[in-house]
Design a protein that fits this description.
The protein is of the alpha+beta class. The longest helix has 19 residues. The strands form two sheets. It has a three-stranded antiparallel beta sheet with strand order 1-2-5. Strands 3-4 form a two-stranded antiparallel sheet.
Length: 169
Amino acid sequence: MTTVSADAIKELRERTGAGIMDCKRALEDAQGDMDKASDLLKERGIATVAKKASRAANEGLIETYVHAGGRIGVIVELNCETDFVARTEDFRELAHNIALQVAAMNPQAIDDEIPLDDLDTSSGEPRLLHQPFVKDASQTIANLLTDTVAKVGENIVIRRFARYGIGEE
């Protein structure tokens, strides 16, 4: 077993936002390789997300976003398991980023609740979770959600959203 320094643990924690012990274990398993440890944390985070998906998410917050001089407005309901997590900066940032995404990309559905054949695909991906994130196209909204679930340790669900635009039906 490789011994890792506190500085390496701190660096990985800052890079990924994962817990101290998770960073230590990942670095030990990756034999000190920072990139490999980061990948391990991501894989373990996805496994954690799958375990938490069945848990009830009845707390959360409503995020609003108004853009373009008041010409576009968005309301998003984002749910988690506890009000403690709903008050964290990570959760609030996720809610804001989702509202920003809805304003910019005008999705028609969250995921697969409406068959893809029934959605208008002429302007790109109509499902929110499958869209590339407007701030970082290398990630999807589903990736953002997964990363935040892994970081906060609770199930998170985008319950619903509404987008309003002046002159839009």
